[in-house]
C-alpha cells in the first residue's frame, strides 16, 4: 500500500465518520465497561456540536455512500435483515440496493463508445441517457438494439479500482494486525476472509465474468418455473460494458404491487428457499448477491410466481465434500442429533481433531434446545449462527472462508423470505429437497456415475505408473552413468518395492470385490506392478 494514498484514504474515512456523526451510533451500542471511556479520547467530541438535522438512518446511509462500494455492499447486506435492525435504519439502507446516486451520463456514454468501438447512435436504435438504476459498482441505461430487442446497458463506475485497492489494503492490514495480536482473531482467519472478499469485489469489476455467470445460471434453470435469468448479448459485452435482455417485473420488496396483482406470497417465499437449495446442492453454483435490488417477480402468473434474477457478478460454489458435510449437518441439526453435529464438525476439520465429542455436543445442545422450543417459523438463522459461533470459540472452531458467501446468501434469503411471508418455515420448505438430494447421492445411478469417473482416471494413472517404473528401472536415463558404473546395478531396492506392492495387492484383493469387478482395479494394478518389478531385468 502506498503510504500517502493510504493516509489520504484513512483521513477521508475519518472525515466521513465525523461529518455524519457515525461515532454517535457506534458509541450508543452496548460495549464493555473498559471501552466506554473511549468516547472522551476522540478530539472532535470535545467541540460542542449542533443537534443533527438528519435521522440516524439517513446519516448512516449517506456515510456508506460517501465511503464507496465496499461500504455500500455492507449496507446492502444489513438492509435485508429487518429482524435485526430498527425500522428507520432498515428503510434508509434499503435505498442502497438500487438508488445509489448515478454518475454523469456523458461519462457513461463515452465509456460505452470506447469499449464497443463505435458511436452510441450506431450501436443502438435508442439509448436512454437517464439511468434506469444505479448501484455501488455500476449503473444501468435502457436501450433498444438495431434488431429491435429491448435491452439494458450496464457500465462500470469510473475510478473505482484505486478506491477499492486502498480499502482492501487497509482491510488486509487490520486483518494481519488482528491475527498477530489475538488468538481469537486467528481462529476467525481474517486474512483468508479478506482475501475471499477481495477476490469477490474485484470479480465484480469484470462484466465479462458477470455475463458468463448469467449464462451459466440461465442454463441451470432453463425452462424452470422457479427462476428466470435474462439473455446476454455477447456481441455487445466487454470488461466494462454488459448488454442483456430487459426484464419487466415487480421489485420483490414492492409488497403493495405484489398484493395488487394477487401474488401468492406463501408460494413466492417458499420458492425462494427452494431456489437456494437447488443452486447450492444440485448445481453447486449459487447467486451470492441476492439482495432485494437484484430480485424481481414476474407478472405473468401471480398464482404461480416466478423469480427473475439479475446482477450475477458474485456467485459461489462448494466442493462435493463441503456439500456433503453441510447437508448432513443441517439434517442432524434439525433432528436435534447434536452428537452427530459435533462429530461431523470434527470429521470435517472445522474444529480440532482432539476436541472431546461429549463436551462439544453438550455445548451445542445448550445453545439449540432453548431455540427449538419455539416454532421453526420463529427461529432466526442469523441469531442462531451468532450464538453457535460464540459457543464455538471455546473449541477453537475456525471460520471456513469457502462458506462465508453461503452464510451471507442464507441470511439474505431468510431476511427476504420473512419480508414476503412472515410465517415462512424455512426448514419445512428446504427439508424435503435436502432429503431427496441425499437419497439421490446414494442411488445406483449416482454410484455408477462415480465408478465411471474413477474408471476414466485409469489411463492417466497407468501413464503415471509407467513413467514412474521407467524412472525407477533406469534412474540414470537423463544422466547416464560412466562406463565404470554400468556393470554395477543394484536391483534389490526395485525388487523390494515390487514385493511390497505384490503383498499389498494380494491383501486388498482379499477384502475387495471379485478381482474382475471394476471396483477392484487398484488391487489388480498393484499386483501387475509388483510382478513387473520382481521379474524385470
UniProtKB/TrEMBL annotation:
Residues 96-344 form the ABC1 atypical kinase-like domain. It comes from the Bacteria. It holds the Pfam family ABC1. It is an enzyme of class 2 (transferase). Pathway: Cofactor biosynthesis; ubiquinone biosynthesis [regulation]. ATP binds at residues 132-140, 154. The active site is at 289 (proton acceptor). CDD domains: UbiB (cd13972). Its EC number is 2.7.-.-. Keywords: ATP-binding, Cell inner membrane, Cell membrane, Kinase, Membrane, Nucleotide-binding, Transferase, Transmembrane, Transmembrane helix, Ubiquinone, Ubiquinone biosynthesis. InterPro entries: ABC1_dom, Kinase-like_dom_sf, UbiB, UbiB_bact, UbiB_kinase. SUPFAM superfamilies: Protein kinase-like (PK-like). Belongs to the ABC1 family. UbiB subfamily. Belongs to the protein kinase superfamily. ADCK protein kinase family. NCBIfam families: PRK04750.1, UbiB. HAMAP family: UbiB (MF_00414). Is probably a protein kinase regulator of UbiI activity which is involved in aerobic coenzyme Q (ubiquinone) biosynthesis. This is Probable protein kinase UbiB. It comes from Stutzerimonas tarimensis.
Amino acid at each position: 500500500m502506498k503510504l500517502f494514498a493510504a493516509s489520504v484514504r484513512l483521513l477521508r474515512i475519518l472525515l466521513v465518520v465525523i461529518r455524519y456523526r457515525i461515532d454517535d451510533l457506534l458509541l450508543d451500542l452496548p460495549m464493555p465497561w473498559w471501552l466506554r471511556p473511549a468516547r472522551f479520547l476522540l478530539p472532535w467530541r470535545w467541540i460542542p456540536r449542533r443537534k443533527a438535522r438528519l435521522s440516524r438512518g439517513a446519516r448512516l446511509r449517506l456515510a456508506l455512500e460517501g465511503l464507496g462500494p465496499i461500504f455500500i455492499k455492507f449496507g446492502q447486506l444489513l438492509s435485508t435483515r429487518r429482524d435485526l435492525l430498527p425500522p428507520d435504519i432498515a428503510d434508509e439502507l434499503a435505498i442502497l440496493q438500487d438508488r445509489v446516486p448515478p454518475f454523469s451520463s456523458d461519462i457513461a456514454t463515452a465509456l460505452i463508445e470506447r469499449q464497443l468501438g463505435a458511436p452510441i447512435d450506431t450501436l443502438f436504435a435508442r439509448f436512454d441517457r437517464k439511468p434506469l438504476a444505479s448501484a455501488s459498482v455500476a449503473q444501468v441505461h435502457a436501450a433498444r438494439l438495431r434488431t429491435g430487442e429491448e435491452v439494458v446497458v450496464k457500465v462500470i463506475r469510473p475510478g473505482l479500482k484505486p478506491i477499492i485497492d486502498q480499502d482492501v489494503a487497509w482491510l488486509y492490514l487490520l486483518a494481519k494486525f488482528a491475527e498477530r495480536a489475538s488468538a481469537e482473531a486467528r481462529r476467525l482467519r481474517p486474512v483468508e476472509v479478506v482475501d475471499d472478499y477481495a477476490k469477490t469485489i474485484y470479480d465484480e469489476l469484470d462484466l465479462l465474468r458477470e455475463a458468463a455467470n448469467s449464462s451459466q445460471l440461465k442454463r441451470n434453470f432453463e425452462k424452470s418455473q422457479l427462476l428466470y435469468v435474462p439473455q446476454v448479448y455477447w456481441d455487445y459485452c466487454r470488461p466494462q460494458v454488459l448488454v442483456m435482455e430487459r426484464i419487466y417485473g415487480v421489485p420483490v420488496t414492492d409488497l403493495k404491487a405484489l398484493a395488487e396483482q394477487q401474488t401468492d406470497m406463501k408460494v413466492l417465499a417458499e420458492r425462494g428457499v427452494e431456489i437456494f437449495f437447488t443452486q447450492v446442492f444440485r448445481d453447486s453454483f449459487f447467486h451470492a448477491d441476492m439482495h432485494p435490488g437484484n430480485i424481481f417477480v414476474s407478472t405473468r402468473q401471480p398464482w404461480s410466481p416466478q423469480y427473475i434474477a439479475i446482477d450475477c457478478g458474485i456467485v459461489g460454489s462448494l466442493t462435493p465434500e463441503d456439500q456433503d458435510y453441510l447437508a448432513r449437518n443441517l439434517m442432524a441439526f434439525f433432528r436435534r442429533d447434536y452428537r452427530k453435529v459435533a462429530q461431523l464438525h470434527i470429521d470435517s476439520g472445522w474444529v480440532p481433531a482432539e476436541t472431546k465429542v461429549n463436551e462439544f455436543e453438550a455445548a451445542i445442545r445448550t445453545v439449540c434446545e432453548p431455540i427449538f422450543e419455539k416454532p421453526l417459523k420463529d427461529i432466526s438463522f442469523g441469531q442462531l449462527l451468532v450464538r453457535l459461533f460464540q459457543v464455538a470459540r471455546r473449541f477453537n472452531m475456525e471460520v471456513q472462508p469457502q462458506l462465508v458467501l453461503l452464510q451471507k446468501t442464507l441470511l439474505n434469503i431468510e431476511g427476504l423470505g420473512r419480508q414476503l411471508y412472515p410465517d415462512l418455515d424455512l426448514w419445512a420448505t428446504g427439508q424435503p429437497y435436502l432429503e431427496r438430494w441425499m437419497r439421490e447421492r446414494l442411488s445406483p445411478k449416482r454410484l455408477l456415475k462415480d465408478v465411471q469417473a474413477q474408471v476414466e482416471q485409469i489411463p492417466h494413472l497407468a501413464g503415471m505408473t509407467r513413467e514412474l517404473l521407467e524412472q525407477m528401472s533406469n534412474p540414470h536415463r537423463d544422466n547416464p552413468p560412466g562406463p565404470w558404473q554400468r556393470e554395477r546395478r543394484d536391483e534389490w531396492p526395485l525388487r523390494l518395492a515390487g514385493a511390497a506392492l505384490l503383498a499389498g495387492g494380494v491383501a486388498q484383493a482379499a477384502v475387495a470385490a471379485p478381482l474382475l469387478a471394476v471396483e477392484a482395479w487398484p488391487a489388480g494394478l498393484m499386483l501387475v506392478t509388483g510382478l513387473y518389478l520382481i521379474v524385470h531385468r
